[in-house]
């Protein structure tokens, strides 16, 4: 009816972001492409160079760094090569710790995010700030304070013994559990905030409809809510798991640094007495390749889900 | 036009030097120089001092090699690191005449193996690395490295070890009585096996936390630097610093002039300032180690002068510096350390 | 109505979550008033560390470092959030295109590279291209590594918003700009706020990369306090942290009040 007066809308039925795609992505390409990808490519090149004694590289191509990672030639390098388990087991240990921490963050972070998203709108921001305020205090200080709390004769153990719940102090410091607790503590908001952003959008009418059809609460959560907020959960898991893999503050301070984690192993190659830059670069390349493959598989799966 | 350009260039140059005259850029360890001393130097000379900090010799080396050389005038590497930086060509040189206080350096610290005749460095502080034991937990004789590597039952599982390859392997070698840069396979194997066996008695690895674990009681014994142990004692830890009969590690931190120092003259002024006994003593009173300068005694705090950590028994064992092995040999020690921490 | 929003135990878990987050801070605050200089022994109540922090020989250094940290965090979070919003629009709203997976990998790259590798590589890169290290280099590095932390919550949010809202606006003759500012951005807001907050705390916390790419004499709070913390926190660091906490609480309360007043005047 108004068609005669007004021209048709310019972009009927679409949202029209396609033509702007390139300008929208340029800032990302420039910032990460120049200031991270280029330096990292340089590092990838370093992993194929000869190490200079005590740090630095010599521009001679070699696979020595990768050989060192995968093959064991004995303490003196004169035995026939067998598969080197040292570094693989360090990777496995780091993955395990990061995985447990991510799961713990998810189990606590999802309910927290849900709780925040179901508050009155004015209160939500306050809750979000409450979650992030502790992070104004430096990670190192938080970790040291956490260690103080869980020491053998620290406040936690004293309280538990005082309440009669324990006879002896629970040894937490210098255990794997302490490392997992430290990682959980370090990265919790990185799980809560993305999930919150997704849940906040959730249309509760869906739950109500399911409830009207006699679905139980937990069934609704599992069958309807979780698939809807999946992008938030995936984002949270990435933001917790990947940084946890390379973390070394929590393992060093809370775990007693008795065994290497990926983070401390790489750190040692650059800042430690071994000064083996190509090897450090090679470990980083292997780690990045591994995580990238998982991420790409996840992105592809998500894309397939979208098309369905 | 040409004259104009030349004048502009000359002016820019002059402006550059005038600015440079007032500055000094120091690359230093964390918490190793009292702020009051820096203020004193600034007041005396009008030079503005900026201090950047690092937390290990190797971290400093990595940062300089990755591109920070040319930004700083002086740094404070440990003994073996002076030698390494010398090999890497990261050091600038000076002559004794350029430092009026050069003669105040304790003669025994002038001709040191890591910088013969002191062409690049001056002594900063020196001390020893051994271990301390909580005397409430263990009362027997502690002057043997067996406390760490084959400990009595009271200490098992309560030992902190420095998270530092050089110190752990050097003390391990002293315990076994083998040279520090051995190429003998049997000796290296023995060191490897001894450390792997000892690890089951250790609670943690930590260098920065070495003092705190003794004060808190989280560890009953721990490898530690002498001044650090004195601080632990001052904070109430019931610890005694050991002088093990097998020997212990000596170290010396040195202030070096860096290559391409932007303010070389000011750097030399600062080094000269630090060789003044009163100023060297101020660092010692702060860090609880020992100065490498003569005539500091009148300026020292009583507690430092008489502390057992700074006064090894006269008839006791001697300390040795950590040796910088050559590349081929170092490979074995790197492998042993990785074995220990895998 | 309330039934489907409420799950038993979620409140308890939220409170537990806050307890875990805040318990170590209680330690920090209490020990900032400790007269003794060790974290493990209590030497009586004292304000000496606050006096030390606010008037001591290092007070100017700490103040400058705190100022740098906060300004860098604000700038880096703002820039990276803006970049992330643009990237999310292109990635979620512009269909499939060549190089989409590669771009996705690129956005996540800062997460994947271990910090020490980023630190060394970036410093080498800066010195190769002749960029003098200082405030600017820190800012560039921070914007870069904050992007994925801002992007992931924003993208997660955006992918949950159906296109119909925007389409409806466009059908009603809104320009693309109007549709974005008036419809889409308000819908995206929770994601944008989440991303901004994460980028902010990541920037505020960073030590390793900052320590490498900063110039001589340039400090942020983490680089200024790191060493003394590693050797067992001294109470003056506890005092600084408590001051920082107080500042953050002040900011939050202020923004809450401003919000409240804003809402009141509107209604």
UniProtKB/TrEMBL annotation, chain A:
Name the record gives this protein: ABC transporter permease
Cellular location(s): Cell membrane
Family matches, as SUPFAM superfamilies: MetI-like
Alphabetical UniProt keywords: Cell membrane, Membrane, Transmembrane, Transmembrane helix, Transport
Organism: Gemmobacter lanyuensis
InterPro entries (alphabetical): MetI-like, MetI-like_sf
Coiled-coil boundaries: none
Family: Belongs to the binding-protein-dependent transport system permease family. CysTW subfamily.
Ranges where the ABC transmembrane type-1 domain occurs: 91-298
Cellular component per GO, a single term: plasma membrane
Membrane topology per record: Multi-pass membrane protein
GO biological process, one term: transmembrane transport
TM region(s), chain numbering: 26-49, 56-75, 95-116, 128-150, 177-199, 232-250, 277-297
Automatic annotation (TrEMBL), chain B:
Keyword terms of this UniProt record: Periplasm, Signal, Transport
Entry's Gene Ontology cellular component terms: periplasmic space
Pfam family, one: SBP_bac_8
Transmembrane parts of this sequence: none
Protein family (similarity comment): Belongs to the bacterial solute-binding protein PotD/PotF family.
PANTHER family from the UniProt entry: NORSPERMIDINE SENSOR, SPERMIDINE/PUTRESCINE-BINDING PERIPLASMIC PROTEIN
Name this protein carries in UniProt: Putrescine-binding periplasmic protein
UniProtKB/TrEMBL annotation, chain C:
Any one GO cellular component localisation term in the record: plasma membrane
Record-annotated membrane-spanning stretches: 12-33, 70-92, 104-129, 135-158, 179-202, 237-258
Membrane topology: Multi-pass membrane protein
Record key words, sorted: Cell inner membrane, Cell membrane, Membrane, Transmembrane, Transmembrane helix, Transport
Pfam families the record matches: BPD_transp_1 (PF00528)
Localisation per UniProt entry: Cell inner membrane; Cell membrane
Purpose: Required for the activity of the bacterial periplasmic transport system of putrescine and spermidine.
Family: Belongs to the binding-protein-dependent transport system permease family. CysTW subfamily.
Protein name per Swiss-Prot or TrEMBL: Spermidine/putrescine transport system permease protein PotC
Organism of derivation: Gemmobacter lanyuensis
